[in-house]
Design goal:
The complex is a heterodimer of chains A (413) and B (282). Chain A has two domains: 239 residues, Rossmann fold, CATH 3.40.50; 153 residues, Reverse transcriptase/Diguanylate cyclase domain (Alpha-Beta Plaits, 2-Layer Sandwich). Chain A contains 14 helices and 15 strands. Chain A is globular, with a radius of gyration of 23 Å. With 413 residues, chain A is of the alpha/beta class. Chain B is mainly α and 282 residues long. Chain B has one domain. Chain B is built from ten helices and no strands. Chain B is globular and about 70 Å long. The chains are: A alpha/beta (413), B mainly alpha (282).
Amino acid sequence: METPLIEFRNVTKRFGDRTVLENVNLQIYEGQVTTIVGLSGSGKSVLLKHIIGLMMPDEGAVLFRGKPLGKIEKTDMEASSVRISYMFQDNALFDSMTVHENIALPLRETTNLEKAEIDRRVMARIEQTELGEAAHRYPSELSGGMQKRVALARALVIDPQIVLFDEPTTGQDPIRKNAILSMIAQYQRKFGFTAVLVSHEIPDVFFISNRILALYDRKIVFQGTPRELENFEHPFKVEVIRSMEGLREELTGLYSRRQFILNHAQLIGKADGETYSVVVFTLEGLDPIIATFGHDAAQEAIKAMGMFVIKHFDAIGGFSSRRNTNEFVTVLPYSDQAEAESILKDFVLDFQAYGIPELRVGDRRPTAADGSVEITVLAGIAHGQPNEDIDSILDAAKNQQKEIARLRCDGRR
Amino acid sequence: MMPDEDRRKFSEGGPGRPLGAFLSGPFAVFGRSAIRWINNSGASVLFFFRAFLKIFRPKQFSKIVQQVYYIGARSSMIIMLVGLFTGMVLGLQMQSVLGNVGAQGYLGTIVALSLIRELGPVLAAIMITARAGSAITAEIGIQRISEQVDALATMRIDPLRYLISPRIAAAIVSFPVLTAMFDLVGILGGYISGVLIMGANSGAYIFRVQASVEMEDITHGFIKAVVFAVVVSTVCCFQGYFAHTRTDSHGAKAVGLATTSAVVLSCVLILLSDYIVTSLLI
């Protein structure tokens, strides 16, 4: 069995009379995105601070590759080149330093790199996090979203193997929240670091997470994939997940997955023997959008797609949800294959006519000089039977996917 | 007849409070304060030594130079101003007093020795505490409560090395230099008021300054300046660094109180250590 990168064994932490963590056991595996979910004040940040050594457990042990963290000498950690970064909830930027100086600080102080090389690496991160115009400004002169990106750039500049994110999307609007999560997911894929997030952004954070850890009543009550969490029956789910997960998703306005499943259950309960159609859409080309216009633009594309899906299918009694970052699902009640295809044609015409109206590059509309990218929409239709499991129908629809539309995104629209 | 329960409460010093506890209360408060004071003193000493040893690590020079600028160079104007008026007041007072006993010729001796041995190091240290020490505490305190100090630790940058050591080194460099400036300008101030305003003999003043000041006086003045540098920089850095652990307040208020404590404690310790160092040197 794989040795966890980080493991908590019976960790207990108290502040005076108050016990925050009690016999916490958890495993975090290398190369994965692990998200810790729990109510505010439940000790998630405390848990994260134990991983980086800002706090020590009163009882129990934190193991790093099977060795207790307290027993690993600093020199051993340095010798093994384990680089851990921490992105603070409130960013913890140095307000007397410019953005460039903030990002350069860990390289300047902990490496022997030449100034030119430090500048090169810092500028690369500044470009990747779309902070080019803010490089020589002070944190107090930046918006909350830009400050988050500076903190993210600083966390990533040392090419870390583990990055701990303490509520990285707090106080952001839906586009920006998803842009930050998308950024984390993209960098995690690109650089292969192990990401540990503390987040309330349900379900958005589930789309980028390999594993979920549920902290409830001072203990970890669940460890598993987001899909496994759906079948987890525990007061945690009622009190925490349902309180955080709204009826509709914040970014797209689509139904949450839980509501989608409830709607589906109601449909098959009512529609005695009737079939229905399920459409699975995939929006391809998000990575080129990110590369050309940035993360915000990619989230605008997802939002626009969600709005088009609602506009077309809710009006005729359908209901839709997001299955993945770029995957949308729609149930068309009482519709056969021909009807579903006809509805889909109207959808494609409308989508191509309007495009993505709010696409932006930073704070401005894109121009011809920014270049252009092509988005492809794939769709697959499957028939649902009343006694059939929704996931197997969705998988069947996904297997039927073919290209239905192409949309050029550039400065003109 | 008093019920047993009431009698017991009365004999124990009040409802729910044993008599022993009531009587020992003030001692317990005093004891807790004494233990806290001893703990803090020990922690401050360890804090200083740990930070001092990190002065000699690589990549410290530019940070020390920067702090010398903030603590030293930017305090020089106020030091010279205070030194000038201190010397002028000394010149006025001493010329008047010495005139009464017919010893006007010793004005230079009194102004120079009192400035170099005592007033220079002490007043310069108090002025630097007011100007730079308070800023050090506030800056480090804000960095602490906004998690910037924790951020350094997560980046594997030792906060003691990065924040504290350069300030201690800069104080050790700056205090003697500023003290020397204070002394020189003070002697000039004494000349202005004593000679130019009050009419004392110019040659006698300069001769007495040269004849009465010995190398030992200057050395003692510099020793005091270094001691005050260690005291002020340690107290101000310590108060800021641990502003978040204060039990009397939190956040910005804790930084404000830490700054006040740093200035008051530094001034008291300057006078206390002045007495100790003087008694050891004499």
